[in-house]
Amino acid sequence: MSKSLLQRYVGVISGLVLAVLMTLFAFTVSIDQEQHKRVVSTLHMFRQHNADLSRDMLLLRHGMLTHYDTLEATLTTMNGYVSRLKPDNSDTTEYDALLAAHKNLLAGMVHKVIVVDQFKSDSALFRNSLAYLPIATENLINQLNGDISYKKQQDTHLELIHISQKLIRYLLVFSQTEARHQSDSVTQLILQMEQHKARVAVPIQQMINNLMDHARIVIQYKSRIEGHLFSVINSSTDQQAANYFQTFNTWFENRLAWVNLFRQLLFVFGMMLFVYVMVMIYRLRRKSHQLEQTHEALREEMVQRQRADDQLRKLGLAVEQSPVSVVITDTMGTIDYVNPKFVQATGFTRDEAIGCNPRILKSGDMSSHFYRDLWDTLASGNIWRGEFHNRRKDGSLYWESATISPVKADSGETSHYVAVKEDITQRKQMEAELKQTLASLDEKVALRTQELNEKVAELERTRHVLIENEKMASLGRLVAGFSHEINTPIGVAVGSASHNLEAVQEVITMLENDRFDEGRFVTLLESMDETAKLTLANLRRAANMVHGFKRTSLDQSEEKQRVFSVRDTIDDVIRSFQHAFKNTGIEIKLICDAELRVESYPGCLDQVIGILLSNSRTHAFDDDTQAGIISIEVTGEHRQLSVVFKDNGIGMDELVLSKLFEPFFTTRRGAGNSGLGLYICYNLITSKLAGSVTCSSQHGQGAIFTISFPVVNA
């Protein structure tokens, strides 16, 4: 083989080997480290903006942000990151998994955009209604105070004013808290307002409806906003980004494995052909090792940074949203940080406060010894607690309760001081007012107690007079009934005696004239016998009436406790009312054991039964020709006497039933009724007899009085 041909073959083989080497080399350097760094950085920024989106929604929810531009900017940036993460076309099997992970991340982002839009819409309605509520409440209160019927409906208007003021306070608290009992309290206030609405004028009803509608919107949309917020904070986009990162790493590591394989082939060819190829392979392997280390370092750094970001975000949100002022200073007292509550409490902005000393809040009311003790405590490494009387930027004074703690570095030396302060101005004012109130409280209590005792004594005298008047009225009705009833037997007895006197006169005349007629004499004797019997029967009937009247009147006039027959006592009362029911179709039925004897106050029972009979006659049966039944059923067991007084009259509606035992309440005041009967009846049962009385009735279905009081069984 000639040298030229050998050179040609060597050149061809060298060219082929070089081509193979170049191909292998080109594949080994095809790993794009910058692409990997770019994807890792994009994922990190995406997750950071995802956290920022949740933070901004929290700030919007609690009113610390007033516009939605930040949300829109964050969503636009996140969408841009998702677009940049779309993988390039590849023929590897891992490409499909990477593309699926990207589609999953894109779908999660679309869902988050939809939820954020819903959050913005619902938040706008919620905030508008919450902002309008104070205006609606003020308009309602002004309308209630200016209504011409206010004098007549003063209690209703005052109640509505109280409810509306309480409602706006509860709604403002409810809008910033998560307590379930606040929602229940607001709902209960709305129900109370609904109950009082029908008692006021139509324009006020419309204003109440408007106020309740906005209150319901606040309740409804608060839960919806919280749901959107929960959905965004707990959305899966962060996990989807992590899944995309894991899939991308798998794809990258597989490509890295192929690169390593071709590197080994390149190393074999290099060993066979050229020494410098061995050097190149060595360099490539070293470069590959460095790439792996960089990849692991980036992965570890991303994990650590994510953890640090989570902790910082939680700490930042806690301090920023703290309901108390937080101030951080260096060891010289220069302010490094203040939270929004400090700005709200003092009036100084962050820019004005940072770099200054807390002495800008001094009011001059605290002594130099006070501040010397504070710094001595902090210098010794201890926690200081106390109260400041400070001055705001506008010059107004306020009180703060403060706790100042030293923050120590790893070396153990104090590097900063953290002050946590709470505004206690209102508490101080309340303490001062309480001391002033307590100073005059004893005098006011004594004066009020004296006035109450005088009013109680006056009411007791009035009640005693009313009861005595009703007793006399009851005795008057008893006497009237007795006189009406006793007239009949006395009249019959007088007529019979007169007839007997005429018969005796006729017998005397026959004897004086010596014209004795035996037949006529026998007839006169028989007639005299019948009239004598009739006279005796009517006189006995009158005697029984007198006896019953004496017993009933004695029982009603005396307040002594004694043993008596329940049936006889009630019978006497019923007989005294016979004249009132004589010409009516009303029947009185008494169901009581004749052997039932108890120890109690028979006079009280007489008055109660008499009042109930009189009440039924006057109110239950408004037509004298109306037929009806009054039933009195008495039972006694377990040292308790129960009386069920029932009639089938016209009955009562709910309004009358609710005021039945109130003094001076009557449905027939024009007929001369005073409205004291059932009130006295109630007092006799509950006070004198130590029992209870209830009434159940429906319109058109009569009434049932149930009386129960303790007795001693005879």
Q: What report would you give on this structure?
A:
The chain is α+β, with helices and mostly antiparallel strands and 714 residues long. Helices cover 68% and strands 13% of the residues. It contains 19 helices and 13 strands. The strands form three sheets. It has a five-stranded antiparallel β-sheet with strand order 2-1-5-4-3, sandwiched between helices. A hairpin with a 4-residue loop joins strand 1 and strand 2. Helix 2 runs antiparallel to helix 3, helix 2 packs antiparallel against helix 8 and helix 4 packs antiparallel against helix 5. About 2% of the residues have low confidence.
Which ranges are low-confidence, i.e. pLDDT below 50, for 5 or more consecutive residues?
548-558
The biggest sheet amounts to: 5 strands, antiparallel
What's the Cα radius of gyration? 52 Å
* Number of E-state strands: 13
Taking the alpha carbons of the first and last residues, their distance comes to 154 Å
Label the structural class: alpha+beta
Q: What helical percentage do the residues reach?
A: 55-70%
**Mean pLDDT value:** 75
Into which percentage range does the β-strand content fall? 5-15%
**What's the overall geometry?**
elongated
Strand order of the largest sheet: 2-1-5-4-3
Query: How many helical stretches?
Result: 19
In short, what is this structure?
The protein has 714 residues and is of the alpha+beta class. The protein has helices at 3-28, 33-61, 69-84, 94-146, 154-176, 180-197, 202-233, 237-273, 275-320, 340-346, 350-353, 368-379, 425-512, 518-557, 566-576, 578-581, 602-620, 654-658, 677-688; strands at 325-330, 335-338, 384-391, 397-408, 414-423, 562-565, 585-591, 597-600, 627-637, 640-647, 692-697, 703-710, 712-713.
